[in-house]
Amino acid sequence: MTETSKRVMPRWAKYRVSGVWNSQYGFGCYATDMSGRKVALVGNEPLALSRGDVVRGQVVCSGDWHGTPMFRVERYVPAYDRVAVVRYMMNNFYLSEDVSDKVYAILGGEAAYDLITSTDSCMRRMRGLFGANETQALRSRIREVRDMNAVKVTYSFLPLSLTETLIAEYGKAGVVLDRLAENPYRVAFRVKGFSMTHADRVFFANGRQPDDPLRTSGLLLYALRTVLNEKGDTYLNASDAGEFAHWLDVACEMSGKAAATGYLPTSFLATRVNDLVDTEMSVREQGADGDWLFCPRGMVNAERRIADYVRDASRYSAIYTGDGKTVAKDIDHFYRMRGIVDSDGEAAVDGYQWMAVENALLNRVSVITGGPGRGKTLVASCICSCWSQRMGGRIYLTSYTGKATARLGEMVKGTDDERVVCRTMSSLLMSKTVSPSSLDGCLVIIDEMSMVDTATMGQFVNYLKGAQVVIIGDANQLPSIGNGQVLRDLLDCGAFPVTELVTCYRSKGAMTLVRNGDAIVENRLDDLAYDNSFSWSAGTSPFDDIVREYTGLLAKGFEPSDVCLLGAFKSEKDPFSIVNLNIRLRDKVNPNGASIPGLRYHGTDIRVGDRVIIVDNLPDSDAVNGDVGTLESYYGNSVVIALDKGADIVLTRSDFPSIELGYALTVHKSQGSEYKRILLAVSPRLSAPWAVNFATRNLMYTALTRAKDAVMLFGSQDALRVCLANEMAPRHTRLREFIAEAMAEDDDE
Prior knowledge:
Structural class: alpha/beta
Number of helices: 28
Low-confidence stretches: 1-7
Mean pLDDT: 89
Strand order of the largest sheet: 11-10-12-13-9-14
Largest sheet: 6 strands, parallel
Distance between the termini: 54 Å
């Protein structure tokens, strides 16, 4: 245990107020404990205290106040105010409002405090109110609330929710304290929500100096990641004066956020850059053109693994044992069985589709591209059919998102279903039963490849070495949320055969959508057409218009899974914030759903019947980031969600932070999904200069191509024009360079 964790531990106690002083934040008062000892109390709760009031809660010694022992109230527990006590039990013990009311009726005004400090006695008084499982869950949660939070005590400035996240990540409070004392900046890289400002405050609380090399390296590394994430690059060109200065500016700005005394000028930070030349987390290398590049080590390793795989796979023979004649026979059979024939009853096979299937079967790795409606999924189904007729190996259908994987699986149903495995890339990587060798001798089809980032592909190639692989994607969509542009780099490197499907087979009613998609990609913006399938809302109040259109579609018989509202920004600062849109839609569509204790979304409750999205990978529940569904029921400490991909999942309370409202999604989150109707909220902030790296025609193309039947737009037409005129700049990656190096090494041998 480190020195910082050897602090006075908290205890639960009551104090009677004897005098109150004004406090700018929270409260401050003199009080006496139950033994009559005089103390000073301070806390963050905005309490309006008077002489004689009783304060209850978890307290920790915090020095003295003008000679009087001072205690800080870490967790205040309300009493006698029925509404406040019931709300406390709902939020902290995860009881429903109805049950909390019954507990209050049995235990009285000090119900919450007594449950914490006299659990056994309270449980006896409430016998019969809970079943065995509910009793066990309540006892477990009370222990969590009651027991000391050593992290919060040591670093009182950390939010309680964040300290709980840290303990969930590292297992024990003691381990968290050790990690924070050793290197809080490493924690910032690992733990979601633990920012550089948090790391700095922890660092200073441990008595460390602002110019400590550990801190400057942490600042520069975090700033490097921040700068790379702005555009999705995998390296920073330090030889480019502008890029280098921007990196230092970001680090400089970060340095003064936690405390003014921590500010470090860029001139000083520049002298510490060489500390990152060769570390566990970073590397400086010279690029092919001689420029000095700073890269996260994990990113370099991932790109090199992909490059080595490309080199090896380009030399391997196909696993499929048929030849051109058997492929032709099987393609013909597939199209006839599907009823895709001409007037003479012959198989009506698009020449590009034929070529795509042939390349997929006769090569170890192949790539298929094309926009919406070009038959990519039909081709995938044909490939699976041909494979299953000749080969014994399994067929793995995968993609970055659960929705895309499920849709691909639906389209190839009937292809020897027992041999077809539909799993997301993340679930395969995290599976305890699937190893890299599990896919040897199998066919692997990766759909929606544009969404796959460098880090994910860098891991996944280990599973592909013994498999035959077909990569499917549309390079005109948004690149991955994570860093890199793997699909674009694979297309440009020329290592694998590529087939582009060009003929559109969408219904006549949806052709405007297809033509508009082509016009956006080809920068023919004057050719955009408007009709019933692509139109602007005629209303004058976008928020009200969106709610009216969404509820109107449901009233017409559309299923919630048929309709999706898309927006660009999640931030609540945006007038078309996904957060605000979600809450507005939910309050209109599901006003009376039962609230679920402990399940919150940006200050509001999540209810039974709500549309929700999973925002993290949850391998134990077979749920992945991006899964969308409807929250069907709640019992005990669990919720049941019916996913749109056709599976029901049960998530426990520890999974609740991964659940958000899903009536409205960002365009990025919608990738890999299709809906009959898309409502697109076009924020005026997309026309701001700072949004230039984000507000691109790729963004609008991706949003438009999520719709199968129609798109209705709301908001700023000027912002739409700005986006359509702005082509996304290529990301800076080294994958093509590494592939060229790997191929050259192989030629030399």
